[in-house]
Here is the input.
Amino acid sequence: MLVKIVDEIESGAEARVFPPEHKHMDLRANPKDIDRIAGAQNHLPLRNFLATVNGADSIFATARATTKSDVPAAVPADRAYEFASQSTVVFADPDLNWDRKNYAELASGLKELLERETGDTVRAVLLISSCHFADRKRQGFCLGIRLVAEGESAQQAETRWGLGLARVQQALLFRSRAMRQLARD
Here is the structure.
């Protein structure tokens, strides 16, 4: 998997907001709300990702997740289709969201894990961004995860995306366990 880390903080990009003002569902507090998310209804890998990342074994929470299928002009002829998703992840423990270093280490650890998978048909962009935590009235950080898969057909692109999203999910859980272990030591 091709992985790139982008630090949006230095680019002056607009801060994200958590929880998002529009239709936010706290999936950690209300896991059954996943049934109300259209992308999760239509795409089992996204449903599994949201359930796992917001689950008890994870130290993360998601702010939002979207999917998109496309036939972009920039895709090589032998891979004429793309399937993509974007999700935003924060730490469930609010105190971890104030230090940019936590997100830099998370992104670096995810990149290392995800690049172990070879191939160039799936790529991820990990975006470290400023984030306004409205409920705390405080500035912090978040991690955006863009995942794009290419394929010879729309179905192949979506299948590759689903496999890639499962790898991202596994990597997040691995980092979650590692961070919990460090906190105990």
Remarks:
- The beta strands are 2-7, 16-18, 60-70, 81-91, 122-133, 138-151.
